[in-house]
């Protein structure tokens, strides 16, 4: 049984490292958020490798390579902070000077390596660095405090994103909630176990091992299938608009009529629907309808209508009565007038291509 655990830990470590490297490379080339997700997985992969080392008593071997000296828990809150900023804030840019925030981590790794090198070269039995209160606080307690702060900020950002997404007229399904909160929930549970083990000295190490093993395999599968799975769809950037001279209109009442025109009357299935035609249907001036969409829906006319079309396609993809139709046929029925436009809009609203979405659903 113990040998099986060691093999499982090594497989999970390999899975995590491969995904970590691929994400970091991807981030360097294009998507910066992937760099920090890769760093988080790198730290977690080293943690499961540490569990493997304990299982097979590798740490005490004379030939052991001290990989644990290259692991810093301080990487977790810092990397999660930048991952959260890059995935929830539309125009956020990681600037080169922000790299200086990682300097204390380099200092930690340097001191740890020098401490071990000095002990081996002098054959002296030095105390563990963790027995030094200042070091213990800096490397164990401070990362926990950081994770608690960052997770609270990240959670609020995700909830705000969920509210904004619903405000655009999109209905979130169970898969959408997992995409939105899955990674956050995993890190939250991990942090709670971390607190229980380090602060309260509870015997939770086995639980941490199991959680990391399961999640590294799960994240590995998701990462290979869809590397941008946890990247949130881009919300349309709201336009700054002043209310036109239509003070006698009740915005909330007219907004309900606007949404009803799509939810109930399905105006979006008209492939050449224009702002003027929508305004005529609502018996409102076009400029006022544009104001409602810009201000209250944080969108423009085209994105607003296309959002309903995408939801129409997604709804029919899950309807057994529509399974005999192709995705493109459903797109045309929903109001799209070309394949390229549909693919572009679908990716913009869901973060995945139609084929990737279907693969995940299956």
Automatic annotation (TrEMBL):
Q: Which GO terms describe its molecular function?
A: DNA-binding transcription factor activity; sequence-specific DNA binding
Q: Provide the transmembrane region boundaries.
A: 6-28, 35-55, 67-86, 98-115, 135-156, 177-196, 202-224
Presence of the UniProt keyword Membrane in the record: yes
A Pfam family per the record = HTH_18
**Signal peptide span per the entry?**
none
Q: Where is the HTH araC/xylS-type domain?
A: 268-360
Q: Per UniProt, which keywords does this protein have?
A: DNA-binding, Membrane, Transcription, Transcription regulation, Transmembrane, Transmembrane helix
The identity of this protein, by name, is AraC family transcriptional regulator
Origin species, per record, is Dyadobacter fanqingshengii
